[in-house]
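Incident log, structure service

09:12 report received: a user says their structure output differs between two submissions of the same chain.
09:20 pulled the input from the user's history:
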Amino acid sequence: PFVMAVSRDQPTIFAGWRADAYAQAGGFWLLVLIASSVLYLYQKRQRAYDHLLAIQEAERKRSEEALRISEKRHRLVTDNAKDVIWTMAPDGAITYVSPSIETMRGFTPAEAMQQTTELDSAKFSLTFNRSFESTAGLTIPLPSQSSAPSGASCARSS
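09:34 re-ran on a clean worker, output below:
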């Protein structure tokens, strides 16, 4: 066999390969740096979003609790009032009637809500004006200052 040997030093033999390896490694590390930066920014944004969701959830719970307390207070007042308290939707449908309707009119609140109301605005206005005019000349006697409790004062018109 014919053997031919060329003598080159080892750094010279691997110089080209080493340059390619460093170039590829540099690209790899640049890619790792970019990917880790993107991941860090995504996680930071996700933590901020999660914090915002937690704040919104806490605010929603506080609002729901405040609404529940307000509704409970409203229900306490309307259910125990001696006068009939009712609410009506813009279309004229009765949406709530207090339980005192039973003692005043003999209807249950459910029956009263089933009734329809036909308000003719002109008729209502005329009726209201007549009732207001009929009471316009009346005077309501006020107690004298001597019969008022201490600390209270009453004004009397002549």
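09:41 both user submissions now match this output. Likely a transient worker issue. Closing.
09:42 reviewer note: The two ends are 145 Å apart (CA to CA). Confidence is low (pLDDT under 50) at residues 145-158.
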